[in-house]
């Protein structure tokens, strides 16, 4: 975490929020539930849905993917710009998710809680700005893969851990960071 204080705070906050939510059984009460948001006016869900992951497996895989990428881009952008990016992506991605929920009502009940928009943003930055250093890092069945493919493999596990419920916020985060 050297040179990346915001990443340290976000990682520790995500882990601590998971422990707090899990011990007090608050995951369902703080996730982004569109029906309760619109019908009951529970606006706090807009802010609490991106705090932590829903399961231990999502937490571990998500942190293994997010922390190195967030640390890298915080060092490159600086803490202030990276913090602005994270806040901007979370706000815009949540707005895009609400637009998608109003356009496609079938997607309203599958949203998983977690910092998936931030994951989508750093994956987009990784895809665009990280060069392939070793285009033939390893081969499999006649296909050559670069070292970036290892990050993509772990990221796919995190992105598809909840199906459409995790894919939608990741895509909204990537679009917001575009």
TrEMBL record:
The chain crosses the membrane at residues 44-70, 82-107, 150-176. Its main location: membrane. It comes from Minutocellus polymorphus. Keywords: Membrane, Transmembrane, Transmembrane helix. The lineage of its organism: Eukaryota, Sar, Stramenopiles, Ochrophyta, Bacillariophyta. It is a multi-pass membrane protein. One of its GO terms (molecular function) is serine-type endopeptidase activity. SUPFAM superfamilies: Rhomboid-like (SSF144091). Residues 41-147 form the Peptidase S54 rhomboid domain. This is Peptidase S54 rhomboid domain-containing protein. It is found in: Membrane. InterPro entries: Peptidase_S54_rhomboid_dom (IPR022764), Rhomboid-like_sf (IPR035952). One of its GO terms (cellular component) is membrane. Pfam families: Rhomboid.
């Amino acid at each position: 975490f050297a040179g990346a204080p915001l990443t340290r705070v976000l990682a520790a906050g995500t882990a601590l929020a998971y422990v707090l939510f899990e011990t007090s059984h608050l995951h369902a009460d703080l996730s982004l539930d569109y029906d309760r948001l619109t019908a009951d006016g529970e606006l706090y869900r807009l802010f609490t849905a991106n705090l932590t992951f829903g399961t231990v497996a999502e937490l571990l895989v998500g942190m293994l993917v997010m922390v190195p990428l967030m640390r890298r881009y915080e060092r490159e952008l600086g803490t202030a710009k990276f913090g602005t990016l994270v806040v901007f992506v979370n706000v815009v991605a949540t707005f895009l998710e609400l637009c998608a929920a109003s356009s496609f009502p079938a997607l309203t009940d599958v949203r998983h809680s977690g910092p998936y928009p931030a994951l989508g943003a750093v994956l987009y930055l990784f895809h665009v700005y990280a060069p392939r250093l070793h285009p033939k890092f390893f081969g499999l069945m006649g296909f050559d893969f670069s070292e970036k493919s290892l990050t993509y493999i772990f990221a796919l596990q995190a992105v598809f851990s909840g199906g459409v419920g995790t894919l939608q916020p990741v895509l909204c985060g990537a679009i917001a960071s575009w």
